[in-house]
Amino acid sequence: MTAESPPRSSSDEALSKRLAELSPAKRALVEQRMRALRGPTAGAGIPRRPEGEPAPLAFAQELLWQLEQVAPGTSTYNVPRAMRVRGALDMARLQQALDAVVERHAILRTAFEEHAGVARQVVRPAQTVALAITDLQGMDAADREAKCESILRVEASRPFDLARDALLRATLVRLAPNEHALLLVSHHIASDGASGGILMQDLAALYRDGGSPLAPLSVRYSDFASWQRMQLNDARMAQLLGYWRTRLAGAPVQLELPTDRPRPAVPSFDGGRRSIELSRAIADGVRDVARAQGVTPFIVLLSAFQALLHRYSHQDDIVVGTVVTGRGQPELEGVVGYFSNTLPLRTSFESDPSFLDLLGRVREASLGANEHADLPYEKMALELREGGRASLFDVMFAMIDDAGALPSLGDATLSTITIDRGISKFDLTLGAAVGAAGVRVVLEYRSDLFDAATIDRMLEHYGVLLGAAVARPETRVSALPLLSTTERAQVVQGWNDTGREYPADATLVSLLSAQATRTPISTAVALAGSGSTPLTFAELDARAATLARALRARGVTTNTLVGVCMERSLELVVALVGILKAGAAYVPLDPEYPAERLAFMLGDAQCAVLLTQRHIADSTLTPLIGAQSGAPATVLSIDSEWNTIVDAAAGYTDVLTPPAPDDLAYMIYTSGSTGQPKGALNTHRGIVNRLLWMQDEYRLTADDVVLQKTPFSFDVSVWEFFWPLLAGAQLVLAAPGGHRDPGYLAEVIRDEQVSVLHFVPSMLRAFLEGTEALAHPALRDVLCSGEALPYELQERFFA
Q1: Taking the model in full, what pTM does it have?
Q2: Rounded CA gap, 591 and 578, in Å?
Q3: Could you tell me which of 459, 475, 463, 455 has the C-alpha nearest to residue 283?
Q4: What is the DSSP string of 185-207?
Q5: How far, in Å, are 89, 168, 184, 337, 746 from residue 171 at the CA level?
Q6: How far is CA 23 from CA 243, 289, 530, in A?
Q7: Cβ-proximal residues to 211 (8 Å cutoff; 6+ apart), any chain
Q8: Highest averaged pLDDT of the listed ranges 10-19, 60-69, 379-388
Q9: 362 half-sphere exposure, CB direction, 13 A CA radius
């Protein structure tokens, strides 16, 4: 037996014909919207419950009720609507209209009670709405506005007792004879976004007609709640859950946004909101792209937001929540209540799609979500959330309802007043509206994560990205610009303009020689705890010049690479400065490196000369060099062969030609984590600019002592060696291997009166756990780099 299809009306046939004329993309979108409007088992109708009989809670209400039991007295789910009223206002008519609205919409006079562990809603008899009136006419204008704002904010945040309170509160502030502020506050358990418009339309009609009844509603919210539970039986619920379980499988647990502060273990939900108005050209572009691609402006604006989140987080899997009205049955269109549902929309950014491709992905995600929108989000989250999370997403997106002006109350006109209650349920909630004048964007944010200035930049970035995307939708998402004109100027020009012209002809050699001339007898470098005699600036300069001449005698010239395989010592500093004076560039070869890495570096660098120490030459280098095809022509142990070096220098009578700013100073090899190590070439000009900037920023003096403890194969060692030497401060070298011993370093800091030093964060943590030496009064600057610095480690250091 087959069921007979209902007869088709002329309007059905016209609709089918019109659908056939649409493109496949537009037809799919229209059909999806029709399915969403029809809702589950469309046409069955919602039966009325007997008057006075308690009803179950709708699924969405149930979650809010449970949250209220866990944290009673919160105002997080208050729904305030504030309006400026200009014109003559009849108080008696307003009171009458408010009472009539509450009588019409039973949900606004519903109590939520618990019986035998189960919550239910009980409709109370009609009651008078308490209209609280405050008169501020006697205050001056500025104080009056501030006081009004304060009253509205306080009343908007006053919590509801769901078991006792009426679910509509009214506050009126009289500002002038014909100017008022009106605030209506309901609870989300009794109201949603669409309910606000219904409430205001009904209030305006009842005010205009003196409280005369409107056409009765065919159903109440409690009828819907009972019907929803009948429709979503176990089989239907399992079917919907199956879809969402598959759709969200493997979704990221957290959207890793760059926040201003670490994410607290327990969110406060304190928040703020910022807004921006984007140009009419962008609004036109959004409409044009939507029309051309057969999507709605919602899809275009959401795609741009998800693209921004992808760029910020560097995650290819982005989940954003959005809200649907949930009013699939036609009899619900005029009913106040909590019908809306939340849907997680998941989008992949794999293969770096163009914005056009992204629109298609977001459209498909939206179509699928809307086809399975009957499952209450609360049930979805309960079944699918992981790791104790309360939500399946961290960020929301919504279209702002800018349908038009508010209705008037008789001769009095209404305009919206925005109230920032300082609450944000999610990390970010972006709302957008496309109007005739442009695109209005509002971004609500959690203030325990973000600063207002960060949100302002985020809004600017959204505007730049959206504008570029609708202007050139074929552009790949990775290539869409983010920076505002001001930010781009800052990056390209501002950060490259230090406000100071550094010497164009300066080199490390010229700066070190000038300092030796200024302070010849001051201590330049010492080896901590060794008992060896420190070198003065004059002695260091003289020994380095001797080594430079010896190197020149062996064919070293401008930009020649000279290897250095030495332990931390006075000789090491002489070697580095001497190589620079010869016009050459040093290549650090850490004697603690594995033999295979040293062999590779020796062969790759093809150094003309290798400077070392006798014990390293005997134990480490001789076996390597013997088997190395590109072995250095000369190997000098400057500790045991110093007399040989002096003799060679004496035979070199030419004037040492100093290096130029663009000549090489050193070559440091990368770690090789992505393959073979690579030699990074660095000129005098680059390191001189860095060191002169550091001196401007941090200002070393002759009284400072800088600890050199970083292995010289890392670039931090470069400023540790040369910054104090060009500034006239004292350089103190940690003993070989001493950089790994917190106890030894603590003694050095104390005994040598160290004032400036560097730590990588992991070593700083180990140091703080083992010593109190950082509390020494001489220490004034600790620089941290090389790894991410955890916030808690920073705070522990400051403490």
Answers
A1: 0.69
A2: 20
A3: 463
A4: EEEGGG--HHHHHHHHHHHHHHH
A5: 14, 10, 7, 21, 66
A6: 27, 15, 84
A7: 93, 96, 97, 99, 100
A8: 60-69
A9: 30
